[in-house]
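Weekly structure sync, notes
Attendees: PL (lead), two postdocs, one rotation student
Agenda item 3: pending single-chain targets
PL asked that the sequence for the first pending target be pasted directly into the notes so everyone works from the same version. It is reproduced below exactly as submitted, 213 residues in total.
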Amino acid sequence: MLTCVSPSLEHYAERHSAPAGALYEALAIDTQASTDRPQMQVGRIEGSLLKLLTSLTRAERALELGTFTGYSTLKIAEGLKEGGTVTTLELDPQYAALARRYFSQSPVGHRVDLRVGPALQTLASLPGPYDLVFIDADKESYPRYFELCVERVRPGGLLIIDNVLWSGKVDDADYQDAETAAIRELNRIIAQDPRVEAVMLTVRDGITLARRR
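Predicted structure, written out during the meeting:
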């Protein structure tokens, strides 16, 4: 699990947040057992935050880059207005297959439109506008993802970007790898972009909220 706070505080916060439910607990266990990178799954707190933000923005059309095994997708789907849809993009067919199993078991699974393939290619066929976008895919493409997504969000809509603190590496000059450099560049772009009003939160591994002006 990637988090900016101690494990004990993370568990304390979980105990004082909305319960996830049996389906999400089963999905978390399955992800831990069936995938090579279970830490990529959003945790209970971030999942609850995604649902709450989706509901508060009264989103009807949502877009997610990086389905993984579907935890975040279902949380967004839960927060959508009745009749809403979340279009979610995943590169790995095995992750997508696991996600589909849980979508089929969820009462909001019918709200999910899962597309498998490279996100940059799929985005070309998705003009928007969207009420909410969640970006949690490959980090080297983050600046490009943001640029493509910000133009697809309606005025007043919300972009949510995960892993913007990258386990603290963004603030450590010893890390010069491509992923860390891309996230630093994204953070610089968002902070200076007049199209959005943004705030970076120290939730889990860092989340930026950017409201489209």
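Discussion points:
- Residues 178-192 form the longest helix (15 residues).
- The mean pLDDT is 96.
Action: rotation student to compare against the earlier draft before next sync.
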